[in-house]
Every structure is written in structure tokens, then in C-alpha cells.
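FORM 12-B: Structure-to-Sequence Request
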């Protein structure tokens, strides 16, 4: 083997080592991406649940306010009639 063959062999070995490292990083990234996706799914579920709770509370408040409107109108009417 002459010097150029040794250099080519070294370059090929470096390429194989680099490929192996890239595959390792790729596998780690896939795992990390899966964890991020799972976390996002949990957050999405939590946000949807909180949205439903907030919506229910707002609906209760709307119903309360809507129920008070006729009473307030009647009270204003009684005040106007008394004057």
C-alpha cells in the first residue's frame, strides 16, 4: 500500500465513523422529538380541559347576569314609578 491508499483508507474510515455518529445523533433526535410531541399532546389536553372549565364558568356568569337583567329593569321601573 502506498501513501495515497493509506490516505484514502483513513478518509473512508473517517467517513464510516462520521456516519455512525450521525446515525447516533439522528436516533437521539428521534427520541427527543417523540418526547416533545408527547409533551405537546399533554399540554394540548390540559389547555382543552382548562378551556372547557373557563367556558363553563363564563356560561354560568352569563346566565346569572341574564337572570338579573329583568330584575334590574323592574327595579328601575319601580323607582321611576315612585318618583
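FORM 12-B RESPONSE
SEQUENCE OUT:
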Amino acid at each position: 500500500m502506498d501513501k495515497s491508499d493509506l490516505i484514502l483508507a483513513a478518509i473512508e474510515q473517517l467517513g464510516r465513523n462520521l456516519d455512525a455518529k450521525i446515525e447516533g445523533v439522528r436516533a437521539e433526535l428521534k427520541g427527543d422529538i417523540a418526547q416533545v410531541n408527547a409533551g405537546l399532546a399533554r399540554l394540548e389536553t390540559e389547555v382543552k380541559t382548562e378551556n372547557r372549565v373557563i367556558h363553563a364558568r363564563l356560561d354560568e356568569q352569563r346566565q346569572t347576569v341574564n337572570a338579573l337583567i329583568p330584575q334590574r329593569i323592574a327595579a328601575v321601573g319601580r323607582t321611576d314609578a315612585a318618583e
